[in-house]
Specification:
- Residues 324-343 have a biased composition (Basic residues).
- Residues 269-361 are annotated as: Disordered.
- Its cofactor is pyridoxal 5'-phosphate.
- By secondary structure, this protein is an alpha/beta fold.
- The chain has a domain at 18-252: Type I PLP-dependent aspartate aminotransferase-like (Major domain) (Aspartate Aminotransferase, domain 2).
- The protein is built from ten helices and 14 strands.
- The protein has helices at 18-30, 37-46, 61-71, 88-96, 115-121, 141-151, 202-212, 233-243, 246-263, 301-315; strands spanning 54-58, 79-83, 100-104, 126-129, 154-158, 166-167, 170-171, 178-182, 195-199, 272-276, 283-286, 292-293, 316-318, 324-326.
- The longest helix is centred in the last third of the chain and has 18 residues, at 246-263.
- The radius of gyration is 28 Å and the shape is globular.
């Protein structure tokens, strides 16, 4: 039997089967590899995942975010509210169009934007809110959308990790002015590389198509300033194969997660970090059993008392009159004892919980 240590389980691994390889080879043999019929078919197929919205394929998820912001007219002088916990591309896209990033806190359960933090971050310069549906979990769109409507703000969904996810029956990418998706190889579906923008506004979709293709709808008829952010037919062909499988994969992943919840967390619940206690070098942790772990240093009363006695000997001395006075430290030195870091921050209920790297305060 092969042990886990001999064959590690990757956190993310691209799925590339014979179907994907055959699709790519078919396009390569056709001689037409740039944006063409495969891209159009991929856009049409993906629209079914976002309630039939217009879909515009591009070369990456970051490009999708950047083009959507540009198409909405967001630029210098504007602010976009972005979650403080996300991949760098969310904030990078805002800066690439010249707007300012305003970070707002996240909810602990969904890792998405906290609606209360969003409302607190709104200023007269705010132009858009960018919820990120992280780890396939939709953000609180049922609370964020009313805030956006109240303040007349655009909502730009970053759904790059949430293909086929939905909230209350509405798929992600179908809530705001537009949604963006990534097809990087480690996403829950991919096209080797690529991205997609979804929108319910036909005119906005046309602007997106112009922006991705040097401002052209007809060849050499440049209507606006644009860039080359097109998807190739090779990428689209692979994406179409994956698109046919993504809903089945999603159901299987949900079943796998339910299995882990039932068979692993019931035996050894992972520790959840609680706020750091003042004056300590580690956090306390709360386990699934309800027990509370404490900092592991000093590890024994003997070590603690030895440290205290050593400190006293170093910090006091007898004066000529026989009284105990504090010894003055030599210039450039410090006699205050250094606190040792904990040997381990493991909770006793979770033998293999991650080691903390916080230093002593």
């Amino acid at each position: 039997m092969t042990s886990i240590n001999e064959q590690p389980i990757p956190a993310a691994r691209p799925v590339i089967g014979e179907d994907e390889i055959e699709a790519a080879v078919r396009v390569l043999r056709s001689g037409r590899v740039v944006q063409g019929p495969e891209v159009a078919a991929f856009e049409e197929g993906f629209s079914r995942l976002v309630d039939g919205r217009h879909c515009v394929a591009v070369n990456s998820g970051t490009s999708a975010l950047q083009l959507l912001l540009l198409a909405l007219g967001i630029g210098p002088g504007d602010e976009v509210i972005v979650p403080s916990f996300s991949f760098a591309a969310s904030a990078n896209a805002v800066r690439l169009v010249g707007a300012d990033v305003v970070f707002a806190d996240i909810e602990p359960g969904s890792f998405g934007l906290d609606p209360a933090a969003v409302e607190a971050a709104i200023t007269p310069r705010t132009a858009a809110i960018m919820p990120v549906h992280l780890y396939g979990h939709p953000a609180a769109m049922d609370k964020i959308m009313p805030i956006a409507e109240k303040h007349k703000l655009a909502v730009v969904e970053d759904a790059c990790q949430a293909h086929a996810a939905a909230l209350n029956g509405t798929p992600v990418g179908a809530f705001g002015a537009g949604g963006t998706f990534s097809f990087y190889p480690t996403k829950n579906m991919h096209s080797l590389e690529g991205g997609m923008v979804s929108t319910g506004d036909a005119e906005l979709a046309r602007t997106l198509r112009l922006l991705r293709n040097q401002g052209m709808e007809q060849r050499y008829a440049n209507e606006i300033v644009g860039a080359n952010m097109r998807m190739t037919d090779v990428n689209a062909a692979v994406g179409r194969v994956q698109l046919a499988k993504v809903e089945g994969w999603t159901e299987q992943r949900r079943a796998n997660a339910a299995y882990f919840d039932a068979n692993i967390t019931a035996r050894a619940s992972p520790c959840r970090r609680s706020p750091r206690a003042p004056g300590t070098s580690t956090t306390s942790t709360r386990c699934g059993s309800g027990a509370t772990g404490t900092p592991r240093w000093p590890s024994s009363p003997r070590r603690a008392s030895a440290t205290r006695s050593t400190t006293r000997r170093r910090s006091t001395a007898s004066s000529p009159t026989g009284s105990r006075t504090r010894r003055r430290a030599a210039p450039g030195t410090c006699r205050r004892p250094r606190r040792r870091p904990p040997r381990s921050s493991r909770c006793p209920c979770t033998p293999r919980s991650p080691r903390t790297t916080w230093s002593a305060s």
